[in-house]
Amino acid sequence: MSTSPIDVVLIGGGIMSATLGSLIQRVQPDWSIRIYERLGAVAQESSNPWNNAGTGHAALCELNYMPEASDGSVDPAKAISINEQFQLSRQYWASLVAAGDLPEPNSFINPTPHMTFVRGRDNVRYLRKRFEALKEQPLFEDMEYSEDPAVIGEWTPLLTKKRNAKQRIAATRSTSGTDVDFGALTRSLVDNLVERGAELALNHQVRSIKRTKDGLWRLKVMHEVGKNQSEVTARFVFVGAGGGALHLLQKSGIPEINGFGGFPISGQFLRTTNPKIVAQHQAKVYGKAAVGAPPMSVPHLDTRVVDGETSLLFGPYAGFSPKFLKTGSWFDLPGSVRAGNLGPMLAVARDNFDLIKYLVGELLANRAKKLRALQEFMPTAKSEDWELITAGQRVQVMKKDAKKGGVLQFGTEVVAAEDGSIAGLLGASPGASTAVPIMLDLLKRCFPDRYDGWVPTLKGLIPTMGTTLNDRPEEARRVLAETADTLGLAQKALTE
């Protein structure tokens, strides 16, 4: 490896670093890129397919993007925005597939209907209002609604088989939904990066980041196998290390990270590979979150396709661990506390009693209680068919707030130095699905003097970048159909 400054260092071998590196390589192919990953392979933390639900987040089924207001109204704006962002990711993936830079799309994305499913009079009323607000929106026009158990049973039998006939239920279905293996996608993006000249350093952990007098960044890197330390300099650094990003940004000393904290939440899923059960359910079915539950803990019964094998997941069951990464340290949480973020963290603890109560309840839940939660979706579920697996760690953003002192933020946030020479991503869902628009925004923010010159290349890869589709029905239908065709998603026969 060269000792001269590296143009771009990407810390973390997940979907965010892979996406940013892929974009930079196309707009500035002469720049040197190096990826540092602390584990022995890329995509082993949040991007690993068993550490996330693989939902291509398009707000087709996720009710938390469209909560009911105190006056009973529902606003589709956030759902539309999330869907618009996912369309940009789909367009980019489709362009890479068409160019031969990604493999056959069914290796990482598969058509899977997205459904919502609710029980009880009030929830049925809410879902009906949500459907009425979305059905006229072009990006949601394939959405169907039913309160008829027979129809819902045709969509996916496991929801209605042996269910109490007196229970009121309702569901929506969008056949344009997808299941995404972000691990496979990440590996393919990184493979392509390396083929085009980027360097990949596995088993290398960045221990510190310091600004040099000439404006570069000096990184101390430990080779985890040989236990030898080296130093490199970089012109631009992206910290895409998932839960590890907060610590590294704090070590960089940039003032923009002051006041940020992290709240780690772990999770588990029940999984079955029983072919008789799997064959009866092809959908991602989301319900409503419990009071105080974080958005990532919305219960859902999902079809998963990983390495060509189909299984079902149910969960997640939230838990607590002070680790910021699944392979992290028990001291991650206490080690992240600083004078600047202690106040916001305490304010979050004060104002989120419902969340704390929910997490305590989840921690105390035994297997029988977990099974009962599954049986609320699938009445015929039997314990012997399901195994419990541990999902990835998620670190929710805590930040300063002028009114409350501190707030817990659900979502993702880019933190960047004023000069744009270093940036990192904090937070969780729907990050992976919206990786492309997040990284486009980062490019614009960190490279303002170059971005305009990159726009023609970017628009060639992502044709609707900088515009919206939902206000142009014909264009929306055309773009969705073209990307679906390129990505092999136009097989509606699978769901009819």
TrEMBL record:
One of its GO terms (molecular function) is L-malate dehydrogenase (quinone) activity. This is Probable malate:quinone oxidoreductase. It comes from Leifsonia williamsii. Belongs to the MQO family. The keyword Flavoprotein applies. The lineage of its organism: Bacteria, Bacillati, Actinomycetota, Actinomycetes, Micrococcales. Pathway: Carbohydrate metabolism; tricarboxylic acid cycle; oxaloacetate from (S)-malate (quinone route): step 1/1. NCBIfam families: mal_quin_oxido, PRK05257.1-1, PRK05257.1-4, PRK05257.2-1, PRK05257.2-5, PRK05257.3-1, PRK05257.3-2, PRK05257.3-3. It catalyses: (S)-malate + a quinone = a quinol + oxaloacetate. Its EC number is 1.1.5.4. Pfam families: Mqo (PF06039). Its cofactor is FAD. Keywords: FAD, Flavoprotein, Oxidoreductase, Tricarboxylic acid cycle.
